[in-house]
Design brief:
globular; 569 residues; mainly alpha; 74% helix
Length: 569
C-alpha cells in the first residue's frame, strides 16, 4: 500500500511539473497559450499512461481531468488547488448532466437490473444449458459470441451490453477468458454499427457528412449516398470483423491475449491467478444453489430489448423512408424505451411464474445494477476528460500538426491515422467524427478542384476520406483506455478494464496497420479494393497462423493433477 501511495504521489508530482513546464521562467502566460498547443495533449496522455502503468483507471482519469482543469485555469499554486475542486464542479458534473450521456447511464443501469433478475430467476442458466447442447468447445463459444454481435447490429451500446452480459456465463463455463469475451464484444460493436445501413449511428454519420457538405460549393450528392459510396474504403471495419471470425474459428491467440489464456489454465491450481473466481469452491457452491428455469425467461427479455429499441427508433424518427427515419431518430430515447420495456417484462415473467418472490426479484435487480457501478463511474470520468480535450483544443492541435502533410492521394491514409490518434487521445469516436468530418471532407473537395483532378478521382478521394474519418475514429476508440465503448465492453464482460485494453491493443494495431496499407494501395497505387480485400484477408490469416497458438492445458497442470481445462479447442 505504501509503495502504491508513493507511486500515486509521484504521478501527481509529474503532472504538476508537466503542466507548469509551459509557464516556466515566471512569465506572465494565460491559458490562451495552452489552447491548441502541444500541452493540450497532456491530460489524455497522462491519464492513459497512469492507467496502463498503475492499472488504476479511476485514479488515472481523475488526474487527467485535474491536469486539464489546471491547464485551463492558468499557472499558480492557487489555481492548482482550485482546479482540484473545479474538476468536479466544472467538468465531471456538467459532463454527466448531458441528457444523452445520462441516457447511457440509465440504460446501463436498467440493463444491469434486467440481467440481475434473469440470473436470479435461472433464465441465464437455462439459456446456457440450451446452448451448451450445441456449443461444446471454445471455438463454438467464440463463434456464437461473434455472430451475436451481428444480430444486435443496430447500436454499439446495446450490442455491447446485450452480448457481453448474455454470453459471459457461457464463456465462463467454457473457460474462455473474460479478456477474450471483452474483445469479441468490443470488436463486433462499433465496426458493425459503422457499416450497417440501418443503425443508430447512421443518423449521426450522415449528419456529420451533411455538415461537411455545407462547406462544399457545387457538391450536390446526397449525404446518405456519400456514406454508401464510402463503405468499400472502410477497411478497418471489414478487416476487424474478418479478424474476429478467424481468431474465433482457429482457436488461436497471441501476445497478451495468449498470456491471459495461459493464466486461466494455471488458475485451476493457483488461486492467485483466478482473477474472476472461476475455479473457487465458493463460486461453485453458489452456482449450484442458483435457480434454473426455462431459457425463454432469458431470451424473451432480450428480444423485447432488441425489438423495443428498434421500435423506438422508428417511433421517434420521421419520414416516409427507412433512411429518413434513421436519420431523424432519437437513439437515446429508443435505447431507454427498449431497456425499460425489457426490465418490466422480466419482472412480470418472474413474478407470474413464481420463480422468485417480490423481495428476491428486487434483490436480484439491485445486485445487477450494482455490478454496473464501477464501469459507469469510469464512463463518467472519461466523458469529463473528453470535455477537457475539447476545451483545450486537442483536436485542433493534431490537425495543425498533420495538416501540412495532406495531399490528394495520400490524404485518406493520413486522415485515417489522424482520426485514430484523435480518438485515442479524446476517447470519443463520435467526437472525433464530429470534429474532423467538417474539416477533412471540404478540404478534400477543395484540393481536388484546385489541383484540377478528374471529378471521378476527386469523388474517390472524398469517399475514402469519409471512411478514413469513420474507420480511424473506431480504430482509435478500440485502442484507447478512456473510450466509452471500450469501457462498456469491459463493464458488460465484467473484465478488468486495463486487462481488456492490453489484450485488445495488439489485435487492433495489426488490423489498423493493414487498413492504412490498404488505403495507400487503393488511392496511391490505384489497386482495386476487389483485390485489396482478398489480399488483406490472406495477410490476416497468415499472421494469425504464424504467431497464434493453441495452448495445451496439460502443459500448465502440476504433475499428478487433472488437466486444468477440458475444453481444449
Amino acid at each position: 500500500m505504501k509503495k502504491k501511495l508513493i507511486l500515486y504521489a509521484g504521478a501527481v508530482g509529474v503532472i504538476v511539473l508537466a503542466t507548469q513546464f509551459g509557464w516556466a521562467g515566471g512569465q506572465e502566460t494565460t491559458n490562451a497559450s495552452v489552447i491548441g498547443s502541444w500541452m493540450s495533449m497532456l491530460p489524455p496522455l497522462v491519464a492513459i499512461v497512469i492507467a496502463l502503468v498503475f492499472r488504476q483507471v479511476l485514479f488515472a482519469l481523475f488526474v487527467g481531468i485535474w491536469a486539464g482543469a489546471f491547464l485551463v485555469a492558468g499557472p499558480g499554486i492557487r489555481s492548482f488547488f482550485e482546479s482540484f475542486f473545479t474538476s468536479l464542479t466544472d467538468y465531471i458534473v456538467p459532463g454527466v448532466s448531458d441528457p444523452g450521456r445520462m441516457s447511457i447511464v440509465v440504460f446501463s443501469i436498467l440493463i444491469g437490473g434486467m440481467v440481475g433478475i434473469i440470473t436470479a430467476n435461472g433464465g441465464t442458466r437455462g439459456i446456457i444449458k440450451a446452448i451448451t447442447r450445441f456449443v461444446k468447445t471454445k471455438v463454438q463459444g467464440q463463434l456464437v459470441t461473434s455472430l451475436m454481435g451481428f444480430v444486435v447490429f443496430f447500436d454499439d451500446y446495446a450490442n455491447t451490453m446485450v452480448v457481453g452480459n448474455t454470453m459471459r456465463p457461457l464463456t465462463d463455463e467454457l473457460r474462455i477468458t473474460r479478456e477474450k469475451l471483452a474483445y469479441l464484444v468490443d470488436a463486433t460493436a462499433a465496426p458493425v454499427a459503422t457499416i450497417a445501413l440501418v443503425s443508430t449511428w447512421i443518423g449521426a454519420m450522415v449528419g456529420f457528412i451533411a455538415s461537411a457538405q455545407a462547406e462544399m460549393p457545387n457538391f450536390n450528392e446526397a449525404a446518405y449516398s456519400v456514406f454508401i459510396h464510402s463503405l468499400p474504403y472502410n477497411f478497418y471495419a471489414f478487416f476487424t470483423i474478418l479478424f474476429v471470425i478467424l481468431i474465433a474459428w482457429t482457436g488461436r491467440d497471441f501476445g497478451p491475449m495468449l498470456k491471459a489464456r495461459i493464466n486461466l489454465y494455471k488458475a485451476k491450481h493457483d488461486p492467485a491467478l483466478d482473477t474472476y473466481n472461476l475455479y473457487t469452491a465458493e463460486a461453485e457452491v453458489v452456482d449450484k444453489k442458483r435457480t434454473e428455469s426455462h431459457w425463454v425467461n432469458a431470451v424473451v427479455p432480450i428480444v423485447v430489448l432488441v425489438g423495443g429499441t428498434i421500435a423506438g427508433i422508428f417511433i421517434t424518427g420521421e419520414g416516409s423512408t427507412v433512411q429518413a427515419i434513421i436519420e431523424t431518430t432519437n437513439s437515446y430515447k429508443a435505447l431507454l424505451w427498449g431497456s425499460m420495456a425489457s426490465l418490466v417484462v422480466t419482472v412480470v415473467m418472474t413474478l407470474s411464474q413464481k420463480l422468485l418472490n417480490i423481495e428476491d426479484t428486487l434483490e436480484g435487480m439491485l445486485e445487477g445494477m450494482h455490478v454496473m457501478f464501477d464501469g459507469i463511474l469510469i464512463l463518467v470520468l472519461a466523458w469529463a476528460l473528453s470535455d477537457i480535450t475539447v476545451a483545450l483544443g486537442t483536436a485542433d492541435y493534431l490537425i495543425s500538426v498533420f495538416g501540412d502533410t495532406l495531399s490528394p492521394l495520400w490524404m485518406p491514409a493520413v486522415v485515417l491515422l489522424l482520426s485514430a490518434v484523435t480518438a485515442f487521445a479524446t476517447g470519443s469516436s463520435w467526437g472525433t467524427m464530429g470534429i474532423l468530418m467538417p474539416l477533412i471532407v471540404p478540404l478534400a473537395w477543395q484540393i481536388g478542384n484546385s489541383m484540377g483532378l478528374p471529378m471521378e478521382l476527386t469523388l474517390e478521394v472524398i469517399y475514402a476520406s469519409v471512411s478514413a474519418v469513420l474507420a480511424g475514429s473506431v480504430w482509435g476508440d478500440h485502442c484507447s483506455p478512456i473510450s466509452d465503448t471500450t469501457i462498456l465492453s469491459s463493464l458488460a464482460s465484467q473484465c478488468d478494464h486495463v486487462a481488456h485494453v492490453n489484450t485488445q491493443l495488439p489485435y487492433a494495431l495489426i488490423v489498423g496497420a493493414i487498413s492504412v496499407l490498404s488505403m495507400i494501395a487503393a488511392l496511391v497505387l490505384g489497386i482495386s479494393w476487389w483485390v485489396i480485400y482478398p489480399v488483406g484477408g490472406i495477410l490476416i490469416a497468415g499472421i494469425i497462423y504464424k504467431f497464434g497458438e493453441i495452448p495445451d492445458p496439460v502443459t500448465y497442470t502440476p504433475a499428478g493433477k487433472k488437466p486444468a481445462e477440458t475444453y481444449i479447442q
